[in-house]
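Q: What structure does this chain adopt?
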Amino acid sequence: MVNTINPEGENDKPFAVGILFFQQNPQDSHCTASVISTNDGNTGITAAHCLYDTDTGCFSDHLKFCPGYDNGKESRYGCVAVIKANIPTDYINHSVSDYATLKWSRILIVTFGYPQDGDMNCAEDRRTFCSWRGNASKENDSSVPLECVPPFLGHGSSGDPWLIKNSPPNNFGYLIGITSFAFTKTCSDI
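A:
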């Protein structure tokens, strides 16, 4: 069947779809999973039989979702651990409703900059190069997409890069955003 909506982009790789690696009985296996549009951005869906074997009554473990995985390689977004799975009892008891929802962990980032104050563990004198590593979380009460980090990065941190898949000593990674400030009660409460 030809893609009549976007025939030129038929082989485009949507990063909302990826491979779900897991172990079942205890062999390595995989299925396809995709991201669901939710407020937190950390929810997905797959087939329930990928997570539960009705013949043995065993649940899969060591679940890892890799969005945009292609040709044996991770995309620039890497992989995230699945921290929770919900399987309908209809599937477990009667092998119907073959779907399951997934929840994956937050995105680990690193940011760098030259703050003059804030909560980064460094000299905070506007001259010292500082870094912070941790999890970004999505701001649910915002009318625009907004990611937050728990510490106050400090004045002078505006423009700091947010990198994923960063590895010392060269600190290369993939830029996914920059530090900007929004005055909201909920971000400071993370």
